[in-house]
Amino acid sequence: MRKVRVFDTTLRDGEQTPGVSFPLSYKIQIAKQLDKLGVDVIEAGFPAASKGEFEAVKSIVGLSLNSEICGLARIVDEDINAALDSDVDLVHIFISTSRIQIDYTIKKTREQIVEDSVRAVEYIKDHGRKCMFSAMDATRTEVDYLKRIYKAVEEAGVDIINVPDTVGVATPFKFHNLIKELKDHLNIPVDVHCHNDFGLAVANTYAAVLGGADEVQVTVNGIGERAGNASLAEVVMILKSIEGIDLNIRTEYLVETSRLLERFTGFRLPPNTPIVGENAFSHESGIHAHGVIKESSTFEPGLITPEMVGHRRRIILGKHAGRHQIKKILEDAGYSVSEENLTKIFDKVKELGDRGKKVTDLDLFTIAEVVIGELKKEEKAILVDEITVLTGNKITPTAVINADVFNTRRVKSAIGVGPVDAALKAVTELVGESIRITEFKMDAITGGSDALAEVYVTVEDDTGKSFTARGAGPDIVMASIDAVINAVNYLMMKKRMNRTED
Ligand code: KIV
Ligand code: ZN
């Protein structure tokens, strides 16, 4: 079985993403996550770039991970010495080789560039380290010159060469042929590094592997200079699932790794991002949902499952959702619901659907749990009739609640720092007893301004007894009030029962 190595450059090219700069603690966590994922090489940074960068690379080396640690350097002594001093296993050196970059950015002849590259390789090898050589802008370099410089560094003892498509102009067929030609010409492993300027980074990386590349450079979520680099998750799953190539990657950590980078970069992936995007395994109701519930490969590639990449399958329910469909999804997830509760859940899904909202399976589970956990009417201490909440830039947030408390009508109002605060204070006024909200937590289950909000509250009474309940709905104020009332209902009923027992 053919094997391909994965070289991750999230911490180097990825950090060149405009607007991204990782503090040391993030770099350490990213490096540990990449190691957990099983990447063969972590390009930890450019040690000569700054003191901080040097320390960061050295700290990552100090973690003694299984992945090899690589540091980038230009072919100048200062850079190479910084990389050697940072104790990296592999020094990745680069120099421009295309005519346009040589003419505008380096004052050297092409002959000098070859000589200096050879000298740099020999220097690194004399220091007992591994060396990778990149001919920067390789895809805009004359092929004869490219072959000449790669052969020269091979003869100088370089361990591996990298073929960077620095400005993302390669196309799959041409890149495939270039890699094949270089492989035929050389006797050392070939690695590729593709940029995504035309959206072809993954396709070009894939084509390069078909042309014989032994190693692929990728970044998590495809971050990197300009339009970024080839996405790790996509390249890995194409090679593994479509081509059956052996990789050291533990694919079940792909989504976890992607989410970590989303948090650390602040860049949210579009939901339709392949493999790791929120919708990668989501199905709208109808024919697809029906098929997928029976056999997932009816409307999924089949070569890849959500479990393989650490994702989850979601069935999105809309207003056309069927009662059976809802029941089946709940049963598959381990919920057993009475017909009465199923009707309530079904009605809530329909109500959301009619308001144009999509209900994900997670939303559905939340609705089900709230319905299942609800007390029956006769078990409730508080029965809310009307709630009004006012807020605005010139109004003090105010809430008015009209409800039966143990069959006695009460109307209470309160002001607060915001609508949720005012509403929660009005509920405590309504109860009349000393109750405290000791914890309040809100999550948006799905993205978007019409997301279903899930609220957890812990309420404590004057005897120190507490109860945690939840509420859910598209309106955060109403979901908060529901959660508090659910909790208060339990506490008050419990108290009354204890009194009766006494
Ligand atoms: O894109 C590029 O050419 C690079 C090199 C340093 C390999 O990132
Ligand atoms: Zn690059």
Describe this structure in words.
- This protein has 502 residues and is of the alpha/beta class.
- It folds into three domains: 261 residues, Aldolase class I (TIM Barrel, Alpha-Beta Barrel), CATH 3.20.20.70; 91 residues, no CATH class; 120 residues, Double Stranded RNA Binding Domain (2-Layer Sandwich), CATH 3.30.160.
- Helices cover 41% and strands 21% of the residues.
- The strands form four sheets. The protein has an eight-stranded parallel β-barrel, surrounded by nine helices.
- Strand 5, helix 6 and strand 6 form a beta-alpha-beta unit.
- Helix 1 runs parallel beside helix 2.
- The protein is elongated, with a radius of gyration of 30 Å.
- The site of 3-methyl-2-oxobutanoic acid has 9 residues, from strand 5 and strand 6.
List descriptors.
502 residues; three-stranded antiparallel β-sheet; binds zinc ion; alpha/beta; Double Stranded RNA Binding Domain; binds 3-methyl-2-oxobutanoic acid; 16 helices; TIM Barrel; 21% strand; 41% helix; elongated; 3 domains
Number of domains: 3
Query: Which oligomeric state applies?
Result: single chain
What are the bound molecules? 3-methyl-2-oxobutanoic acid, zinc ion
Distinct helical segment count: 16
Alpha-beta classification: alpha/beta
CATH topology of the largest domain: TIM Barrel
**Main β-sheet, spatial strand arrangement:** 1-2-3-4-5-6-7-8
Number of strands: 16
Helix content, binned percent:
40-55%
Described by strand count, sense and barrel closure, the largest sheet is: 8 strands, parallel, barrel
CATH architecture of the largest domain: Alpha-Beta Barrel
Overall residue-averaged pLDDT value? 89
CATH superfamily of the largest domain: Aldolase class I
Termini Cα gap: 75 Å
Uncertain runs: none
Beta-strand content: 15-25%
CA-based shape: elongated
Radius of gyration from the CA trace?
30 Å
CATH class annotation of the largest domain: Alpha Beta
